[in-house]
Amino acid sequence: MVRGKTQMKRIENPTSRQVTFSKRRGGLLKKAFELSVLCDAEVALVVFSPRGRLYEFTSSSMKNTIERYKTVTKDNMSRQTVQQDMEKIKADAEGLSKKLDALEACKSKLLGQNLEECSIEELQSLEVKIEKSLLGIRAMKTRRFEEQLSTLRQKEMTLRQHNEELYSQVKMDGQSNCCLVE
Q1: What does the record give under GO molecular function (predicted)?
Q2: How far lies 32's CA from each of 59, 69, 100, in Å?
Q3: What's 13-60's CATH class?
């Protein structure tokens, strides 16, 4: 009897499917046992049937094997997470480095340096940006001068009032001294 290659797809006939499950489950459990004995490997196998029945094999305690599995996968996950985080940080650093280089180049161009590399369009764009910046600077300077002028005018008014009060006091003191002398 020649066996052919089994096509990997769901078996439609429920009876054939159950027979295949039973046979292959037995073969799988046998292989797990052989692996544990021949190779001194710690093996744990858990199988649930389509009806929900549990079949299991362990070469040692199932609980210990599951705890060991959790520990190993947790360590691997944390290593993977650290590695992924490191890769993300490196990528972010590279991106920030490129942005910094671009900003430094833009700054030097705005300061009038390294303009030899620029095209006419880039130079015109720089000129427009500088003119807009200059307008903003002049507007801020004008605002500050107006604020300073307003503060100085208030100070002047206060000093004038104070001067008038002093003048009034001197005048009154002068009149009272005049009356006392007579």
Answers
A1: DNA-binding transcription factor activity; protein dimerization activity; RNA polymerase II transcription regulatory region sequence-specific DNA binding
A2: 9, 17, 58
A3: alpha beta
3-state class (DSSP) for residue 45: strand
Q: What is the pLDDT of residues 56-66, one digit of tens each?
A: 999 888 888 88
Give dist(CA 21, CA 75) in Å, integer: 35
Q: For the chain, state the CA radius of gyration.
A: 46
Encoded tokens for 144 = 């500050």
Q: Please report how many Cα atoms fall inside a 13 Å half-sphere around the Cα of residue 136, on the Cβ side.
A: 6
Return d(Cα 173, Cα 182) in angstroms, integer: 15
Distance CA 95, CA 103 (A): 12
Q: Report how far residue 27's alpha carbon sits from residue 39's, in angstroms, rounded to the nearest whole number.
A: 18
Only one residue has tokens 């006091």, namely 169
What's the Cα-to-Cα distance from 149 to each of 38, 139, 140, rounded to whole Å?
97, 15, 14
